[in-house]
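Students often ask what a holo structure prediction actually looks like on paper. The answer is less mysterious than it sounds. You provide the chain, you provide the ligand, and the output is a string of discrete structure tokens encoding the 3D arrangement of the protein together with glutamic acid.
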Amino acid sequence: MNKAITRFAPSPNGLLHVGHAFSALFSARLAQDLGGTFLLRIEDIDTTRTRREFVRGIFDDLQWLGLRWPRPVRFQSRHMDAYCKALKTLHGMGLLYPCTCTRKRLRETVSHLAGHSADPDGAPLYPGLCRPRDEKGHTGQTPCRHHGIEPGKPLPPAWRLDMDKALALASRKLGGDIAWRELGHGPGGETGTIHADPARWGDVILGRRDIGVSYHVAVVIDDALQGVTHVTRGQDLFHATAIHRLLQVLLELPQPAYVHHRLITDAEGRKLSKSLNNAVPATAGLPATTLKALREAGMTAAQLRALLGFATER
Ligand code: GLU
Ligand code: ZN
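The corresponding structure tokens follow.
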């Protein structure tokens, strides 16, 4: 049996809040319980939103919480080539096509389609405008020609997964349905063997126009490269796991177990958002508060750990 490896993988586009603290403590605790290793990974491929002070903040906050992790820490922005290689592999398998639809065009098209379905996040499914009509598909372009926006160059296309083709190939490879092992719980209490239904997401974007790759690609490549055995994260990513499993099958990557955990919500039961909160100390809406604000308001890490149910060092 491989040694257990868990990870906390924040995106440095805001200050960490109490929900992140819960997620990080959850991941570290699981590693500890399994006698394994807890990793920190910085998911900073989105250069349009990443800020250096938020990276600093992540290190400060997690250290303050008392967490430790091996170095060097993997920064996704330094590994764009690995994600591009995966995109090129999928492209070589005939599973990607370029899409130049603007948001406006998509909005207008979808508004004409009565009863058009939405993905699990509530966004309308891609109506297939750029999907190749024949087997020859498209010619002449490849993903990752350049990363994102370069002055004087036209914006590259997005690259979408041809979901029908991808599912057909995956079921040939697997000889069965795509599933994952859920050791935690989905938002509807789902646990155990989960039947993955990636088709609910339609032709998802795997290569973003602005930054070249997408979260879905980077996360499966890194979880595989880093030998992550237990993917711990919030229930907001439960349904996206279907896409991740599909990519793992197509790219022949190992299959981790998934451990989705509850989201810490604010007083009104809303999902916490990093950008939502400005230093509101302990008196109001605690979970929506940044860790930095709590620290500056005098809260100790031990107090916060206790509040979140991680009081005892085991
Ligand atoms: N970077 C993602 C986020 O901050 C988490 C990715 C994951 O845990 O799979 O939402
Ligand atoms: Zn398109």
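Residues 1-78+264-314 form a domain with the Rossmann fold fold (CATH 3.40.50.620).
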